Amino acid sequence: MSSEQSREVARPGDHAGVPDRFDNPGLPAHRHRLTDADPRAAKRAERQVSLLFAASAIGTVIFLVGYFAFPLEDSTFGELQKSTLVLGIGLGLALFGIGVGAVHWAKTLMPDTEMIDERHPQRGTDEDRQAAVDILALGAEESGVGRRALLRNSLLGAAALAPIPAVVLLRDLGPLPGAVLSETLWEDGVRLARDPGGVPIKLEEVTPGSVFHVIPENLSESEHPLEEKAKAAVLLIRLDPELVEDDPERAGWDIDGVYAYSKICTHVGCPVALYEQQTHHLLCPCHQSTFDVTQHCKVIFGPAKRALPQLPIAVDDEGYLVATQDFTEPVGPSYWERG
Amino acid sequence: MSQNLTTRAAGGTADFLDTRLGASKAVKGLARKIFPDHWSFMLGEIALYSFVILLLSGTFLTLWFDPSMQLTTYEGAYAPMNGQEMSAAYASTLHISFDVRGGLLMRQIHHWSALIFVMAMAVHMFRVFFTGAFRKPRELNWVIGVVLTLLGLGTGFTGYSLPDDLLSGNGLRIIEGILLAIPVVGTYVTFFLFGGEFPGEVIIPRLYIIHVLLIPGIILALIAVHLGLVFAHKHTQYPGPGRTNDNVVGYPLFPVYTAKAGGFFFIVFGVIALISATVSINPVWNYGPYDPSPIGAGTQPDWYILFLDGALRLMPGFVEFTLLGFTLSLNILVPALVLPGLLVGVLMLWPFVESWAANDKREHHLLDRPRNAPVRTAAGIAGIFFYLVLCLAAANDLIATAFNLSINDLTNLFRALVIVGPPLVFWVTKRICFGLQRKDREVALHGRETGRIVRTADGEHFEVHADLSDEDRWVLVQHDSHRPLELPPAKDENGVRRPGARTDAVRSKLSHWFFDERVEPATPAELAAAHHDGHAAEAIEASETETSGRQVVGSAGD
Q1: Would you write out chain B's pLDDT as a tens digit for each of its 558 residues?
Q2: Burial environment of residue B151 by CB neighbours within 10 A (0 to 12, 13 to 18, 19 or more)
Q3: For residue B248, what are the β-bridge partners?
């Protein structure tokens, strides 16, 4: 029908009556599948679907066999891998078989003639809308919420106050920050110890070019060792003092070219654990902030802004490296009140 | 006999349900509801099914997982860590992996489903965006979808942090650094979340309850609304012959989609099980328990957090300021909080902005072919490009190592690309859309190239163009082309500024940006003209059969 229509439309020289837009030609004629026309094809499809369901059952058996074949008692890593593999393949097959079977069933044997549902606008009819407005107005009128201002206002006030306990209750989630973010375990006389192990480090052990991961020796006695470590971790580096820029403010903070810097990145707090010996750069593996040790760990690339704080160190009577004071500024990521 | 019994039993059950729940009305209203068929409609299903798999596998994991940061000494099947101190969370994760049969498989199923869950939501969102399925009346469902995606990121990240291994602990440390950067209240937020200083002893149990109850509960509720609205609106459909804005053409929920969609759940679950059986993911025993000091190089978060990590890597540090004794870390705030906030804002507002610019208040149930909405498509592709650059930037260390490049050069390249790239991609995509639209017009008016070259008696060569059937042509010509809104004069005849003139000016500008350049769909008149005086080829082709030089249009459909 529509085909005839466009034949009409296309007559040359007769543009009067040509519509502005094409017409929807309507659903094309349905094409039957092989399984609709040929009972043998339908039977074949039925067998295929059953075969897939059977494969699923086999998968379940494989899973059960795997479960009991690998008891995981005193087993090796290899056995764990085998167990995971067999259980997973069994489970996968059990599920996949059902799934593919059901879809194949739907596609080959269930009707594939397209059907049509009509749509209706979301909007209610004008009568519906008027009725809704009337109901709401009536309800509001009946409740008296518009007339009784005292009632309404006192409810609003009470409802505004009621959530306050919910907020107040959250107060004990944690302590107030106070000044703890700017304090670490380091103080005059605290020995620099190896991380891990906690063995104190002697100056002579720090050969040129070497790097030590350092914690305060008193860390293990601390009440909260992880929290303290998260602030107090330090990198110890020895390099030729000639290479390092002169900074009178830091005079006496190093000893014989042994420098101690906070290991906590001033960006978002990852450990700055990568040291490049050739260039004397420290690199944070999380976001690649790069600090130049020869410039007192100034940022030379990446998203961090501030230099890594330096820990002033000295040698005690027994030759061990010790801090002479805490860091002179907060370590780690920036925060509003750090200044 | 047994048949009879079964029938009676079924009848009894049905009666029981109907007299108590009114089941017959639900079956009558829903069971034969028509859904259209298209592969791209299954993307949202994948998201739904992987969420169900997450609930199942996650429940299994909770039977052994101990969300506690209490230090304990590990004794279990994983020999290399025997005697080591670690949190109970990490130890119980090792226990699930090494001592519980199928435990490692379930952990891997849980983790893979999480990655696929977020991925499916993202790709489903792309489908909805590029086909304009978010248009009226579905704007609110689009907003719910954006919220669901965000919740997916949230539940993914909280779950990633639970094993308390070295990698996830460093992830939490980065979160701490980001929260600290919030102006004024950053330290308070951090101390309240972690119960004091990082890492503290409460963050894992707190994240646990958020991960297993709070967010999944909200997701479940929103999924119910999301799907309820799909039923209420009836599914959108692609344009085609017989498909109109007032109907939906497809197959009934029962039995066809019960089998297809139900079967698809098993397929998704089966495939995830097979992946989890064969591909290891998050082997936490290789990383060790969390310790604030060590870290591995080349560490990346799960894929859906990559864009945030990449943004953090690209932002240069010099934008941190100290003013009046207070520190404002824009180098962290902009990539970690402002940028995702902007992305979410643009996504949520897009449907409303677009309909405002088009002054389009109609309901839309027929999907757009992406080429027919060039600005939307170009903006979407530009956005995806922006997102992908950020994702790649989060792997800048891996790329630099693999290709032996300078990480600084690579980072600078990504910095340039993230700024220059999207406008360029926008322009290119828009050009491609117009190119495709012109091609559509060409094919609609002049038929399809057949590759058959014919030589006429006069020695002239031409390629025979085959006519389109009405059905095929309909797909190419059915769409609307919006025109930009014209600006009414800002002042009335008395020279008085009209209220709202400024808003109208903005709206008109936006509308021009959207719709200034456009290719109109071919019309019947153009088709007639094309056949009348159009290309020599068709004229000659036609003249072979009919001296009038016409007859082409009606030959459709054979």
Answers
A1: 567 888 999 999 999 999 999 999 999 989 999 999 999 999 999 999 999 999 999 999 999 999 999 999 999 889 899 999 999 999 999 999 999 999 999 999 999 999 999 999 999 999 999 999 999 999 999 999 999 999 999 999 999 999 999 999 999 999 999 999 999 999 999 999 999 999 999 999 999 999 999 999 999 999 999 999 999 999 999 999 999 999 999 999 999 999 999 999 999 999 999 999 999 999 999 999 999 999 888 888 999 999 999 999 999 999 999 988 899 999 999 999 999 999 999 999 999 999 999 999 999 999 999 999 999 999 999 999 999 999 999 999 999 999 999 999 999 999 999 999 999 999 999 999 999 999 999 999 999 999 999 998 999 998 888 989 999 999 999 998 888 988 777 777 788 888 888 898 899 999 999 999 999 999 999 998 888 754 544 444 443 433 333 333 333 333
A2: middle
A3: A117
Chain A residues close to B270, C-beta within 8 Å: 91-99
Give the torsion sign (CA, B220, B226, B232, B234). Answer: negative
Distance between B105 CA and the closest CA of chain A, angstroms: 5
Q: Residue A2: its chain B contacts at CB < 8 A?
A: 470
Closest chain B CA to residue A306? B317
Q: For residue B465, what are the β-bridge partners?
A: B449
Q: What is the ipTM of this complex?
A: 0.91
Which tokens sit at B239?
């344009």
**Residue B249 to residue A27, Cβ atoms within 8 A:** yes
φ, ψ dihedrals at A238, nearest 5°? -115, 125
CA dist., res. A25 & res. B469, Å (int): 10
Nearest residue to A186 via CA among A211, A217, A212 = A217
Q: Which amino acid is at A107?
A: K
Whether omega before A333 lies within 30 degrees of 0, making that bond cis, reads no
Q: Do B325 and A269 touch (CB under 8 A)?
A: no
Question: Positive or negative CA dihedral for B357, B358, B364, B370?
Answer: negative
Q: Distance (Å, rounded) from C-alpha B533 to C-alpha B244?
A: 32
Cβ A98–B553 below 8 Å, yes or no?
no
Nearest-Cα distance to chain B for A211, in Å, is 14
Q: With contacts defined as CB-CB under 8 Å, which chain B residues touch A58? A: none
| Nearest residue on chain B to A171, alpha-carbon basis | B192
Q: What is the pTM of this model?
A: 0.92
Q: Which residue of B has its CA nearest to A104?
A: B260
In a mutational test of the B interface, the residue from A89, A288, A329, A337 whose CB has the highest number of chain B CBs within 10 Å is A288
Q: Which amino acid is at B550?
A: R
Whole-angstrom Cα Rg for chain A: 39
Best to test chain B binding among A335, A337, A338 (most B CBs inside 10 Å) = A335
Please report, as a single letter, which amino acid is at residue B339. Answer: L
